[in-house]
Amino acid sequence: MGHVAGELGLSLLWLWLLLCSWGCLGSAELRAPPEKIAIIGAGIGGTSSAYYLRQKFGKDVKIDLFERKEVGGRLATLTVEGQEYEAGGSVIHPLNLHMKRFVKDLGLSTVQASGGLLGVYDGQTLVFEESSWFIMNMIKLVWRYGFQSLRMHMWVEDVLDKFMRIYRYQSHDYAFSSVEKLLHAVGGDDFLGLLNRTLHETLQKAGFSEKFLNEMIAPVMRVNYGQSTDINAFVGAVSLTAADSGLWAVEGGNKLVCSRLLQASKSNLISGSVMYIEKTRTKQTGNPTKMYEVVYQSGSETHSDFYDIVLVATPLNQKMSNITFLNFDPPIEEFHQYYQHIVTTLVKGELNSTVFSSRAKDQFGLSTVLTTDSSDLFINNVGIVSSVREKDSPQPSTDGTYVWKTFSPEVLTKQQIFKLFLSYDYAVKKSWLAYPHYKPPEKCPSIILHDRLYYLNGIEFAASAMEMSAIAAHNAALLAYHRWNGNADMIDQDGLYEKLKTEL
Ligand SMILES: Cc1cc2nc3c(=O)[nH]c(=O)nc-3n(C[C@H](O)[C@H](O)[C@H](O)COP(=O)(O)OP(=O)(O)OC[C@H]3O[C@@H](n4cnc5c(N)ncnc54)[C@H](O)[C@@H]3O)c2cc1C
Ligand SMILES: *[C@@H]1O[C@H](CO)[C@@H](O)[C@H](O)[C@H]1NC(C)=O
Ligand SMILES: *[C@@H]1O[C@H](CO)[C@@H](O)[C@H](O)[C@H]1NC(C)=O
Ligand SMILES: *[C@@H]1O[C@H](CO)[C@@H](O)[C@H](O)[C@H]1NC(C)=O
Predict the structure, then answer these.
(1) What is the 254 CA–ligand 1 centroid distance (Å)?
(2) 269 assigned to some structural domain
(3) Bridge partners of 454?
(4) pTM of this prediction?
(5) Would residue 473 count as lying in a domain?
């Protein structure tokens, strides 16, 4: 009898072990974390990926972050007389929740984006001029455009409202395998349709007038994306949110977010330029999990290392990252996507206001001039800026002059600077391949390039902004994590909005 009871006990134990292993298979904890992850690019996309990957995969995974220039990428400053000014990505919207969160969690502070009065120049005259009296502005706007600016505000609000759903999905750990699926999950077909149409077409259909589009909307697209209203309607809406109040920047420079994220993620910064990513022939390396070899140049030497997971966080084209993919089947081709060339110039001097207005110099109260498409000027905009340390509105230097920032399609010649300024003592510039040249219908490049090889910057073809890179980074980290652990139920889920609405 005792023997039979012993046998029964033993088989129950087996049964229990068996059931447990089944049960555990369904949960996320079974598979050991990856050993090594590579991230290419230490801009906001790469550094926030490092941060989110560390959160998901835990403390033991080794994360290498490759950067060939400076940490920050398109977040960078230029120095004028010892003060730093934002030269790339500069303003952040109050509802950009990831950026807001980073600043709070990383112990950084914020500064308010410079205010001041704005005018719009059409090549002949200022077609719109803000006044310091709020009521007066409303009257001017209504007088010239009826209630279109109010309607415009509501249109933008609606897009933003829907887009904000992404934060809830991400806080519940849901990931998407393509930018289109992500956008569909937040706003359905209507939202995805925004990528297929120009802003112009979309707003025209919604009843906005040509005059309003030319004088109010195009100038905003020109300053934010160096393009006009023929960009896709989604990036158009993102651009219009920059006309909201409460815009901010990081005290000391937006790029500080990147260096702090890098520190907080405890990843290893490698100064080098990645040349190749090669899929290893698994049999030869003997290590079946380390799928990818990253070959990079550091100084004059070429090195390489093996990784389980690779994230590419820089635009994949020859001019910008020049990375070649070897040994992939099907091959990963180069992405032939054109980025807009924009030059940032900072000038410390006195603006020649008669370029824009016949009014006397001391009656020209504007601190920002935007331009229409017809303006035919060599700049897209010009405006007074504060340094990254100024908490309030910009202060003139002791000689009464301000630092002005302009964006232009080409490098300004000395003659051009003298056309805009009565005098100047200092000018510095930085050239960018700044953001995609938008051409709807837009097709966003894939996020999953291969089994465990991910690409973040496809999201820029929906819209390029710091927050968009952070959202792509969070998504890629979640996607890499769920795919590593086989959690198919956390990827590309339908009906998330309804599902999470009841879950508070
Ligand atoms: C002039 C300008 C104004 C802007 N204004 C705003 C704004 O006001 N608000 C806003 O939200 N956004 C703005 N943006 C957009 C915003 O700056 C970008 O969307 C964002 O910074 C992109 O970040 P990223 O990390 O995806 O790419 P990047 O910042 O470009 O980072 C990629 C990094 O990868 C590195 N790299 C590339 N190839 C290799 C390689 N082979 N090996 C190693 N390293 C490599 C690069 O050196 C770079 O540092 C602006 C951009 C510009 C240029
Ligand atoms: C957008 O256009 C593409 C073709 O360019 C088409 O396949 C897709 O269905 C369109 N999507 C929407 C939501 O209209
Ligand atoms: C791209 O990289 C290849 C080698 O990896 C090099 O020969 C070529 O000059 C590079 N091109 C650019 C535009 O940097
Ligand atoms: C200022 O600009 C106006 C208009 O372009 C020009 O006529 C004038 O000569 C400029 N003034 C100076 C001092 O350069």
Answers:
(1) 12
(2) yes
(3) 311, 448
(4) 0.93
(5) yes
